[in-house]
Amino acid sequence: MDPKPPQLQDENPPKIPSNPTQNHIRFSNTTTADKCNFDPFHQRRRKLERFMDTFRTVVIKIASSGGPLTAARQMLIEERLRDFFTDFHTPDHPTYSAMINRAIRDLNEEGGSSEESISEFIRKQFDDLPWAHSTLLKHHLRKLCECGDSR
Question: What are the record's GO terms for cellular component (predicted)?
Answer without folding.
Answer: nucleolus; nucleosome
